[in-house]
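To: structure desk
From: M.T.
Subject: fold request, one chain
Message: Could you run this one when you get a chance? Sequence is below, nothing fancy, just the single chain.
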Amino acid sequence: MIRLLVAALLLVSSGCQTAYYSVWETLGKEKRHLLKEEVQHATAEQEQATQQFKDVLTRIKEMYGFKGGDLEQFYDKLKSDYEESEKRAQAVRKRIDNVEQIAADLFKEWEKEISELSNPNLKAKSSDSLRSTKERYVRLHKAMNRAEESMDPILKKLNDYVLYLKHNLNAQAVGSLKQEMGDIETEVKKLIGDMGKSIKEAEDFLGTFEQ
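Reply: Done. Structure tokens follow.
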């Protein structure tokens, strides 16, 4: 089984989706199972990213009171915050990409199999089920993308501040950043709200998807 899991990871990383799904089907998992798991993983990554950006906001508030001390330490903390935030953002993006890919493949397969049904009643019911699932997915997809986009302004500002401090590491430079960091506080609060909405949509989607 471990060999099959390794093979699946290698196939998805190489972009060979058909073989990737075949490996999982051998393990008893259809596309609907994989979509459910990826949505769960995406939710977990969003929760971790939310916590990371909350930590950034806490750090920023601490910086408001900076009146002296170890400037190198100040810079190192901000740089570490940026690097960890970027790491979390990349993880969220990757999971959302996976959700998009599997959802598209699932819906394509579902439509094909509906066309193969000969019973009109079953065909109509399956079509209705597909339509309602797509509608719920569209809401989830929009919420996830909105949350993903909310990370970009914060990351750009953090990167600007890190690069600025790298070559201007003095008390005056730190003081000037304190005036700029109010923008990040606003952006972080917006992101936390968007992440919360995305996580809620994921929970709603999974709740109905499993029924």
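Reply (cont.): Residues 9 and 163 are 36 Å apart (CA to CA). Let me know if you need anything else for the meeting.
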